[in-house]
Amino acid sequence: MNVKLIIAPSLEPEPFLSLGVGILCSQLSKHNIDTQIIDMNISLRLDWPSKDRIHTKLRNITHDRERIFKFLNNSRDNFLKDLTFDMVKPFSFDGTNIFLVALGQLVWDRRDYLLILLVLKYLREKYPNCIIVLGGEHFEIHPIYDRFETIALFSLADYLIRGYGETSLILLLKNIESGEPS
User: What is the CATH number of domain 3-178?
Assistant: First the structure.
């Protein structure tokens, strides 16, 4: 089982790695589940050209639900496609069959939802047979405030883990590996 733990992108990322992510990786390691951490915010902090311009464009797009919906349903949108490519290009996802996407912070900004949706869409299209598990403190503390975002996020994921994931994630991964229903 090749597992990648992806820290979801944010336009205002925390300057440190979440303690929860560290604990989760420690628990996965204890159960011999090899996991690689991919912090998508590294590219946002370091490599993004014209970050302010992107902030502005994203602010305008996040209120255009029809445009987002069309893009999620395979409509062409060069800006969103290029933005997705810029986010994922520094990372290697090949050979991965399970993606754990951690929303490690409270997601208040709709632009962050859009970034997360773009990453999930990319993973779903590029690796159609992979399993995507969403989780993180966000789902426990702050429910998603908008039905559109809820439906869009969950339509791209296979599983959602709420609360502390150390036990439930291990059980889910072991069930997936053994082929048992989860």
Answer: 3.40.50
